[in-house]
Amino acid sequence: MKRVTLFFVVLLSFTLLFSSCAADKADSNMGAAEAPQINGGFTETGKDVTAQPAERKIIKTYDLHAETKAFDESLKSLEAMVAEHGGYVEGSNVTNRSLNSKNESYYRSASYTLRIPADQAEAFVGGVGNAFHVTSNTSKVEDVSETYYTIEASLEELITERDSLLAMMSSLDEKSDYNFWLTLQQRLSEVKQQIAVYQAMLNNYDSRVAYSTVNLRINEVYNYTEQAESNRFGSRLGAAFKESWISFWEGCQSFVIFFVGAFPTLMVLGGIAAVIVVLARKNKKKRLEKMKASSNDSLDE
Q1: Where are the beta strands (DSSP E) in 177-279?
Q2: Cα torsion for 278, 281, 286, 289, to the nearest 10°?
Q3: What pTM does this model have?
Q4: Model confidence at 86: pLDDT above 80
């Protein structure tokens, strides 16, 4: 009787085991039938699952030198152009010296660092060329795609690590597992600092990619710089002669202005020098008279 009972128990166990395996196999076949098959980057429904190429991260920088005869009006026009193209002034430096100043004969100048949307930068630079007399125009293109996406991948890994650390710390008993919890806390602090650094780097790249940089220097001039069409000896000699006379005349003006400004000081110094000369002559005369008197006394003896 005991053997019969044991036989039925074993038979029942094998029956349940085979039923379970059959059910798992059926579920597996059903899942395989429902899952989309990828063939050459496309699913059976025709949807493209191939990763799209990453957007290139391009930074453009423009350096311009320009001249103007109407300094104040030109600066106002420049500000209007920047606003029209959706840009902004990141930094500027404008001198306060005037062509008509009574104390100085220097030209005024201005330096600007402008940020212009990348898709508007070329149009803006062209507008500067129309509004000013541009003497120099250079540009630089920098592809930072590789660096950008490397930083982005590192940032994603750090964020994943941060989330894992937070989950682990929340599952611990701070009192009973204090040493381990403290180790996780220290690592979490390091990860957060690295995340902040990488995020700042990406933000900086995003800004420089979205907004091109235009470095513009504007000089106030009496006459625009001539753009010579040839390099003939006569033209170069004439230009050099003209420039030398302009430099000589400006040098004379500067000397006159300096002399007039320093005249009161020179008058005071001249008066002091005259007093010193007079006193020196008097002292010399007294010494001569003493020497002459001493000589006469010696002869009388």
Answers
A1: 211-220
A2: -140
A3: 0.55
A4: yes
